[in-house]
Structures are given as C-alpha cells and as structure tokens.
C-alpha cells in the first residue's frame, strides 16, 4: 500500500488530445504523470497517446464518466476548436463555450488542484487602436468586429471568470500568439507552409510567432509551477508579415485593402485556402502581445528563434509527405 | 508675406537637387552604419526591436533622408549638450501639415547627436489605416500616441517625441505659424510617472514648407483625415503642389525640465506644469525666430 502511494504518479487530463500541441505535451509529461486524453476526434492512426484515450465531446455524459473513473490532480484544457471553415459556428459554440463550462464545473466538483487553459491571442482582436504591446489587461476587442470569434472570447472569459470565482482550483490561462511548427495545422501556419500567403496590399503588420516546442514548454511550465493568472505567451520577438513570408520561403498574393468578408470567402473557396475573413484584420493591424509577466513569473524563455522556426516551415517542400506523417511525432520537447 | 515667400523660393536650388537624385543610389553617408549600430536598441533574430523598429529599413532610406536633411532643408540642429542620458520626453512644436518636423528632429538625433539617439514619434490614431505609411512608421520606430505605448517605452529607458498640440498644431493655417496651440496634458502625467525629464524642442522652418491658407474641413471629414490643407500650390498644381517648399529648418534642443509630483494629481496642477513647458518651448521658438530673422530660406541658426 505504502509502496503504491509513493510510486503513484499525479493524474492529468488532457483535452484536445489529438492535437499536435497536446501530443507534444503528453510526450514530455508521460514519464512523470499518469495521463488521460480526451478528444472529439479519434486518435491519429499511427500515434500512440501515452495513456488512456477517450473519444468524447466536451459537453457529453462521457466526460462525467471520465471524471468519475479517475481522480485528476490537474486538467489541461487544450481542446479549443479553432476558427476555421471546417466547423460551423454553432458547433464551435457547443464545444468551446458549453463544453468548456461543463469541464470547468467538473473540475470544481471533483476538486481538481490545477487547471491550465489554452486560449488564444485572437481574443484581443486586430484593431487600429491596439497598443503596440498588449498586456493581459488590454481590452478584448475580437468579438466587436468579428462575430466569428465570439466563441473564442467566451471561452477565454469562462476560464478567467472561473479562475476568480474558484480560488481553490489553481487556474492558469495562457494566451499564445501564432503557433507555428512542423506538426501545427492552424490557418497561419498552413498558409506559410503552403508557400502561398495572402497579404493586404499596402499593409505589412508586425506579427509574432511561437514555435510548437516553445508553447509545449510553456504549457509544461504552467502545469508544474503553482502560479495562477492569465498570461500572454509569445515567441522570441516581432517580425513584419512580409519578412515572415520571405523567411518561410513563400510567395505573396496581394489582396485589395477594402476586401469584403464575402469576397474573402469566394477567394478562399476558389483557391482552396483556409482563409477566415477575420484573419484579414490581422493582416492589416498588428496584434502584438507582451509576455513579460509570463517570463518573469514562470522563468520562461523561448528557445527557438523566430527566423529559424519560419525557415523550418519553408523547408517542408513535399506537402503530401507532411500530411502522411502528420500523425507521427518523433520529436521530443 | 506669401508673396515674399514665393519670391524667395529658390527654384534653381530645386533643379540642382533633382539632378542629384540619380546619384542617390551610390551615395554613402560617412559613419552612418556605425551610428546605427550604436543606437540603444536590442534586435531579435529577424532584425526587429521590441516595438517593430527595423534599422535595415532605415538604412535603405538613409540616402534619401540624408539628402532631404542636409541638402533640401539644410537642417541646422543645436543644443544636443542639453539632452540628458536615458529616458527623455521631447516636447516639440507641430507645424507644416505633414510630420516633416518629427522626421527632422529624429534625423538630427540619429545623424548628429553624440551618442546617436532615437526619439520614438507618437503618431495620430488614424495613421495605422493609411496604406504603406502605417508599416513605414513602425519600421522607423514610431507608434500611435497611446498612453500605454508611451509608458512602455519610457519604462524601457527609451525616449519619445511628443507633439502635444497634435493635429491642432500641424493643421493650423499659415497666419497662425509658430503660435503654440492648446497642449494636451497626457504627456505630463506619463513623464511624472516614469520620472523622465522633458526637453523642449523648437523646430523652425517647417511652417513655411506648406503654407496652408484654408482648411477644407468638409473634404477632410469625407476622407477621414483630421484636416485638408489648401496651399497656394495644392491642390492647384496637382502632385507638384505636394512638394514642400525648401525653407531652411533649424532644430533647437532646450534645457531639460525636471518635474516633481505624482501622475495622479488634479488636472489643474498638471495644467500648470504643462503651461511651464509650453512657455519654455515658446521662448525657445521665439529665440530661434529672432535668430532666423527675415531670411526664411537661407537664414543661419547660430
């Protein structure tokens, strides 16, 4: 009995377990933690999640069962559904807002000690009045101009409200900037990797990028260090969008500055690019986040240089090869 | 006055300048690269600093800016010895429709002060919506005049260049030249908060570059600009009317002013301090104007 108590590893629930970030985090955590993964999508065929894997929607009964069967010390909610054309806004609202609320309620009910929530910097929105360095206190303007981002803002809001109301659950909310990396398939990363990047004519905003490995490291730091709060997480530094495109070895497709949302959808449909209209604002105005607080409190330092990270994207030439191996994760953090 | 202005305009000078433009590509500014390297900025792997300044872009435009500074406006700058080390809030008078004054103050600090310095310009809130200008401004270190931006810069020991008159100053008519308009008070609270000294900077000569005789407010409102100047040449001469008159520009850095107090003082107390800055800047301007005398296009700065 005493033996098992000593060797008993802390149990961690990871949502969005099929995503690249979750798999990177899980891979690094598995020696020290007992992991359970949940995702509405089935696990990628050729990878093995280092622990139990459950296919479940976040708002379904199945999630209650998971919490009843396991006694979780920590929950890492990495399963926010991105804004993309793949999913309807109703589905995203179901999963991101209602599902997250359910997960948070379960964390409270089952007395989870640590909760890490992965939000996004998109909640600040791209706006001409944005300060050049957005801190965690900056207003969340995203839903003001783009109803498509409402679920992202509500998701963030649910997590931060939970943090203030339930101080017994140590909650850390991370708002990372654009995540890029070999395994990442978000919109901006897919565009840079595809070699063809739309850019608004006459506008060249500053951007930030964080490498997948740095974000995974940041998530592990936030799990292991007992600091509650909302934190921006950025990469090494800022870079102009046109320079990012150049470093990723991609070409620019200029779009007119006053392009309408409808026209963006047409362009996206014709070119088979994943081009959500809200992204156009991010191609116009900078949304630079300040992660000084996270660096100071967690001792975080990004290890991958922005330029290197972008060049790595450019070097992936054969896209079919990439999709084939998207499932397998050979690298460790 | 306008007539004299026209008569004094040195058109031969203009012509010789145009012929020099072709030699720009190969022009090298002595010691410029070395001065860029000595700027107090930290660059990341992509060559940008924390706020998006990109020295490589400045280097690209340097020959053009250098000619504008040295040959076209024949800028004379004095008083660098007054500038304290570390964070500084430069307070300058605004005039001449487009921010040539900001450019000349920035260039004088970059090209002539010892050590080389940067002043980050605080620009109008509508600038980010202007194509090309928006990104260029960021590359040369400017940003919108948001208190959060200003605070961030000062906390990181950077210096900011503020025109407290804003568009009230730059958009004013030629008849009001060198008369300081109402000052905003935000800069004083920020200077007190970060304990930064204030250096008044008088810019003489920009008011004559675009002598505005009328502000076409309705049109300005229509295109979303803060003002729309009508000069003797613009829009009458079309694009040619956009060429600024080559008046001689002088930049005078005044003695630094140190203020004691809290940023949470009442508006009344703050306004008193602002008034003090305004007066010392107006003195500096008047001295500059006196020295220049009647010779708008050829006067000396001494």
Summarize the structure.
The complex is a heterodimer of chains A (333) and B (302). Chain A has 333 residues and is α/β, with parallel strands linked by helices.
Q: How would you sum up this structure, described in words?
A:
- The complex is a heterodimer of chains A (333) and B (302).
- By secondary structure, chain A is α/β, with parallel strands linked by helices.
- Chain A is 40% helix and 17% strand.
- Chain A contains 14 helices and twelve strands.
- In chain A, the strands form three sheets. A seven-stranded parallel sheet of chain A has the order 3-2-1-4-5-6-10, with helices on both faces. Chain A has a three-stranded mixed sheet with strand order 7-9-11. In chain A, strands 8-12 form a two-stranded parallel ribbon.
- In chain A, helix 4 (89-109) links the parallel strand 4 and strand 5 (114-118).
- In chain A, helix 4 (89-109) packs parallel to helix 6 (150-165).
- The longest helix of chain A has 21 residues, at 89-109.
- Chain A is globular.
- Chain A starts with a helix and ends in an 8-residue tail after the last helix.
- The model of chain A is unreliable at 319-331 (pLDDT under 50).
- Chain B is an alpha/beta fold.
- Chain B has eleven helices and nine strands.
- Chain B has a seven-stranded mixed sheet, sandwiched between helices.
- In chain B, helix 6 (133-139) links the parallel strand 3 and strand 4 (143-144).
- In chain B, helix 7 runs parallel beside helix 9.
- Chain B starts with a helix and ends in a 10-residue tail after the last helix.
- The model of chain B has no long low-confidence stretch (mean pLDDT 88).
């Amino acid at each position: 009995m005493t033996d098992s108590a000593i060797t008993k590893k802390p149990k961690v629930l990871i949502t969005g377990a099929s995503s690249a970030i979750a798999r990177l985090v899980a891979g690094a955590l598995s020696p020290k933690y007992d992991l359970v993964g949940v995702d509405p999508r089935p696990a990628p065929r050729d990878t093995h999640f280092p622990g139990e894997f459950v296919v479940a929607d976040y708002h379904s009964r199945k999630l209650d069962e998971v919490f009843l069967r396991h006694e979780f010390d920590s929950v890492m909610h990495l399963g926010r559904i991105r804004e993309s054309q793949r999913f309807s806004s109703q589905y995203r609202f179901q999963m991101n807002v209602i599902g997250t609320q359910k997960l948070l309620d379960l964390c409270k009910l089952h007395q989870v000690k640590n909760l890490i929530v992965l939000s996004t910097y998109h909640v600040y929105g791209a706006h001409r009045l944005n300060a050049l360095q957005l801190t965690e206190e900056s207003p969340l303007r995203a839903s003001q101009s783009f109803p498509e981002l409402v679920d992202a803002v509500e998701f963030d809001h649910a997590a931060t409200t939970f943090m203030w109301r339930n101080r017994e659950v140590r909650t850390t909310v991370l708002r990372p900037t654009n995540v890029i990396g070999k395994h990442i398939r978000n919109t901006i990363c897919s565009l840079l990797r595809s070699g063809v990047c739309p850019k608004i004519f006459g506008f060249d905003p500053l951007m930030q990028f964080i490498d997948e490995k740095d974000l995974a490291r940041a998530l592990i730091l936030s799990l292991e260090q007992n600091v509650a709060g909302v934190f921006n997480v950025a990469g090494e530094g800022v870079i102009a969008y046109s320079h990012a495109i150049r470093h990723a070895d991609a070409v620019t497709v200029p779009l007119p500055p006053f392009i309408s949302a409808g026209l963006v959808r047409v362009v996206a449909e014709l070119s088979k690019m994943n081009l959500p209209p809200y992204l156009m604002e991010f191609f116009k105005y900078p949304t630079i986040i300040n992660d000084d607080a996270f660096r100071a409190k967690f001792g975080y330092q990004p290890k991958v240089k922005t330029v290197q990270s972008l060049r790595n994207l450019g070097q992936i030439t054969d896209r079919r090869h990439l999709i084939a191996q998207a499932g397998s994760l050979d690298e460790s953090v | 006055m306008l007539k004299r202005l026209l008569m004094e305009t040195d058109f031969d000078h203009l012509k010789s300048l145009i012929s020099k433009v072709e030699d720009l590509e190969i022009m090298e500014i002595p010691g410029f690269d070395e001065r860029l390297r000595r700027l107090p900025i930290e660059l990341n792997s992509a060559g940008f600093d924390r706020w998006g300044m990109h020295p490589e872009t400045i280097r690209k435009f340097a020959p053009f800016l250098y000619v504008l500074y040295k040959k076209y406006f024949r800028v004379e700058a004095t008083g660098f010895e007054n500038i304290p080390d570390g964070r500084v809030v430069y307070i300058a008078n605004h005039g001449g429709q487009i921010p040539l004054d900001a450019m000349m103050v920035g260039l004088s600090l970059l090209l002539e002060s010892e050590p080389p310095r940067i002043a980050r310009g605080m620009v109008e809130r509508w600038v980010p919506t202007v194509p090309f200008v928006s990104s260029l401004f960021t590359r040369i270190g400017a940003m919108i005049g948001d208190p959060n931006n200003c605070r961030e810069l000062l906390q990181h020991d950077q210096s900011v260049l503020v025109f407290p008159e804003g568009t009230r100053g730059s958009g004013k008519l030629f008849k009001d030249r060198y008369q300081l308009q109402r000052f905003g008070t935000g800069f004083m609270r920020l200077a007190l908060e970060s304990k930064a000294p204030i250096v008044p900077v008088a810019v003489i000569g920009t008011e004559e570059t675009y002598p505005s005789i009328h502000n076409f407010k309705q049109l300005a409102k229509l295109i979303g600009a803060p003002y729309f100047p009508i000069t003797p040449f613009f829009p009458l001469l079309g694009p040619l009317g956009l060429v600024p008159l080559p008046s001689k520009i002088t930049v005078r850095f005044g003695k630094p002013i140190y203020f004691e107090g809290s940023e949470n003082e009442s508006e009344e107390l703050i306004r008193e301090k602002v008034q003090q800055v305004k007066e010392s800047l107006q003195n500096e301007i008047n001295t500059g104007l006196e020295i220049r005398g009647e010779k708008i296009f050829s006067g000396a700065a001494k």
